[in-house]
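Ops channel
N.P.: pipeline sanity check, posting one input/output pair.
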């Protein structure tokens, strides 16, 4: 699956290059079919279509009478955009999604297992600095049973 950080440049037409190390896997395993949506953390989420379908099925199955569920469905499903890598391994990021995530030129592409997060590079750097200073993360590490990891 996907892990690690790559910083890429969004071009003037809103095309974002997928990091080269993932292109073959995305093409072979997922036919280059991807889905882009927004996240409450003010970043974008980029899923291979097959992984997105699992998330969407769970969201659709939630009780729609619950107002918070509807808000979550609107946020994730309502803003989902189908995308496909072009011959140069780029995806098109719609202007509305760029604006929501504050993407301008330099974009941090962060592998998160079954998906990628797309962040404005400066926002990503600020968030990482804050996380490194957050003592609560040490407590969480212990709580979830990964206390052998050093933070």
């Amino acid at each position: 699956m996907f892990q690690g950080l790559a910083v890429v440049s969004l071009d003037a037409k809103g095309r974002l290059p997928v990091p080269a190390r993932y292109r073959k896997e995305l093409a072979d395993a997922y036919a280059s079919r991807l889905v882009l949506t927004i996240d409450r953390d003010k970043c974008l989420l980029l899923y291979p279509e097959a992984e997105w379908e699992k998330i969407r099925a769970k969201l659709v199955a939630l009780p729609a009478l619950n107002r918070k569920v509807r808000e979550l469905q609107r946020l994730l499903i309502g803003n989902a955009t189908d995308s496909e890598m072009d011959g140069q391994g780029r995806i098109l990021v719609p202007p509305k999604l760029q604006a929501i995530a504050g993407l301008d030129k330099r974009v941090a592409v962060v592998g998160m297992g079954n998906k990628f997060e797309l962040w404005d590079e400066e926002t990503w750097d600020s968030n990482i600095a804050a996380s490194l200073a957050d003592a609560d993360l040490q407590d969480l590490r212990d709580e979830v049973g990964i206390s052998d990891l050093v933070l």
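N.P.: looks fine end to end. The first strand starts at residue 2 and ends at 9.
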